[in-house]
UniProtKB/TrEMBL annotation:
PANTHER family xref list: ALDO/KETO REDUCTASE (PTHR11732)
Source organism: Calicophoron daubneyi
Matching Gene3D superfamilies: NADP-dependent oxidoreductase domain
Ranges where the NADP-dependent oxidoreductase domain occurs: 69-339
Active-site feature positions: Y103 (proton donor)
Protein family: Belongs to the aldo/keto reductase family.
Protein name according to UniProt: NADP-dependent oxidoreductase domain-containing protein
GO molecular function list: oxidoreductase activity
Key words, A-Z: NADP, Oxidoreductase
Pfam families: Aldo_ket_red
UniProt key word Cell membrane: no
Annotated site, Lowers pKa of active site Tyr, chain positions: K132
Amino acid sequence: MYGNAGDLSMVKLPGGAQDPALEHAHAGCSAREPQNFTPPSSLYVQPIPTFSARVMETVKFPDGRSIPKVGLGTWKAGPGEMMEAVKAALEAGYRHFDSAYCYGNQKALGEALEECLKTMKIERKDIFVTAKVWCTYLRPDEVRKACEMELADLRLSYLDLYLIHWPISLKPGDDMWPKSEDGTLIVDKTPLVDTWKAMERLVDDGLVKSIGLSNFNRRQIDEIFENSRIKPVNLQVEIHANFPNTKLVDYAHSKGLTVTAYSPLGSPAASPGRTNPLTEPWVTEIAKKYGKTPAQVLLRWLVQRNIIVVPKSVTPSRIAENINIFDFALTPEEMKTISTSGINERQFKLLCFKVHPEYPFNDEF
């Protein structure tokens, strides 16, 4: 039914959410003005694609491998919920699962994947699993240890994509949030380039297929590109209708990076009273026109920008809903409306990280 692990370009669907804030994980030191960079105008004028309702679109990495455009986000999925969520996702056509050490549920995800792949007769090479190395494991001698722990929890022999979760190194140890007596985080000063070289060795040793970045800004991306033997293939950052993150997305694409949006529906439950795109007329009217839900419209807006999405849900009906976005397309005018009608404000600032010189949100983008 599927190709090899490097070719997921035609994943067949059988037919066919929102999440609270990740205040501690989802979601440097001096601002630097952008130099000679003009975001491309293609964001609003991409041609309306041809499509089939039963075909999952993919994005190709610079290294030749492909990633499905829709994945299942797993943050806050409890052990008792994971099995049903993974089963529902696989039945709906998902083959992409997004995880992280700091979510605290990789063991449950690993158990669910192992059981479901066996009972549903799906091969490992036909799914795509992303994981992320946490801030307390960014020293070069800790990176492999972190990867091996995640592989053990996920019951896998390799990861399809491994990301540096944040460009913020913290004091190594078992405590994910090491703090001093005054309550501030205890930072580490490991250079990002040193961490990246350790990531490259994971590829050399076959533990991961591809490597990338999360929550990095333009300056930090450039630093990795200028000092890498194996280039990053993916950047995962916050993107939704309330924060289109256009400059960073366009810059990443200009570097050949694929881009993944976390919290693609804006995580409205995280900030009661904040503008909720799911209920705004500039989304609901478009949804009504196409006979789709507001969530489907917001996800379609992202994938039509060539952005991968990982909406989180443990509800089977919403899981199926979130992947059923390939049988319609938004017009250039509708794309522009969604891109310009929100409040254009980052949801996940993680201000506790501001004590670190590599805090990524001091820069413009």
